[in-house]
Recover the amino acids of this structure.
C-alpha cells in the first residue's frame, strides 16, 4: 500500500502539514508506505490547455515538478491533497496540480479507483469550498473518496494551532486515516 500526500501549503511545517502527518501516521501504523510531496511554495505554471498530454499519454509539455508529482500519483494506491484555505479557496500550487494532473490522468484513466482524500486548514470560513475543489478532482478522476467524522478540516490560524487548539480536527484526521486504511485493505482483498 503506497500513499502519496501532497502538501499545497507554502508553509512546509504548518497546520496543513501537521494534519497530513496525523493521517499518514495512522496509515504507517497499518503498514502503508507513505510519502509527503511539498508542492506549496514552488513556482508552477498552470495548465495551458494545449492537449499535448493526450498525445504523450500522461506527460505534460511544461516539464517541471508537476510531471514528477503525476508519476508519484500513478504509482500510489491513495492520494491525499492538503491545502490551506486562502480567500475561500485552495492555493495556486494545489490548483495547478489538480488541473495539470487531471488532464494527464484523463488521457489514460490512470487514477481510476485509487483512494483520494482532501484536507484543509482554515481560519474561519471557506474550507468547504477548498475541500470541494480538491474532491471534484477525485470524483472526475474516477477515484474513491472516504469521509470522516466531520469535514476534513481544522480551524487553525497560527502555525501550531493544529492539533493544540483543535482536538476535534485531530480526531477527524485520525478517523480519516483509519477510513483510508480500511478502503486500501478492501481494495487488496477484492483483487485477490
Amino acid at each position: 500500500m503506497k500513499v502519496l500526500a501532497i502538501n499545497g501549503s507554502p508553509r512546509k511545517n504548518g497546520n496543513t502539514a501537521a494534519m497530513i502527518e496525523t493521517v499518514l501516521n495512522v496509515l504507517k501504523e497499518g503498514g502503508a508506505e507513505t510519502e509527503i510531496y511539498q508542492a506549496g511554495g514552488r513556482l508552477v505554471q498552470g495548465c495551458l490547455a494545449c492537449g499535448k498530454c493526450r498525445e504523450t499519454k500522461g506527460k505534460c509539455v511544461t516539464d517541471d515538478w508537476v510531471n514528477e508529482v503525476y508519476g508519484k500519483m500513478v504509482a500510489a494506491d491513495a492520494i491525499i491533497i492538503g491545502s490551506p484555505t486562502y480567500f475561500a479557496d485552495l492555493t495556486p500550487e494545489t490548483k495547478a496540480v489538480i488541473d495539470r494532473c487531471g488532464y494527464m490522468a484523463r488521457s489514460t484513466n490512470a487514477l481510476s479507483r485509487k483512494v483520494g482524500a482532501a484536507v484543509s486548514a482554515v481560519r474561519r470560513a471557506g474550507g468547504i469550498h477548498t475541500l470541494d475543489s480538491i474532491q471534484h478532482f477525485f470524483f472526475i478522476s474516477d477515484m474513491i473518496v472516504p469521509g470522516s467524522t466531520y469535514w476534513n478540516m481544522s480551524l487553525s490560524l497560527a502555525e501550531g494551532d493544529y492539533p493544540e487548539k483543535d482536538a476535534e480536527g485531530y480526531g477527524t484526521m485520525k478517523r480519516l486515516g483509519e477510513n483510508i486504511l480500511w478502503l486500501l485493505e478492501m481494495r487488496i482483498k477484492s483483487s485477490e
The mean pLDDT is 96. The longest helix spans residues 167-191. The CA atoms of residues 6 and 37 lie 5 Å apart. The first strand starts at residue 2 and ends at 7.
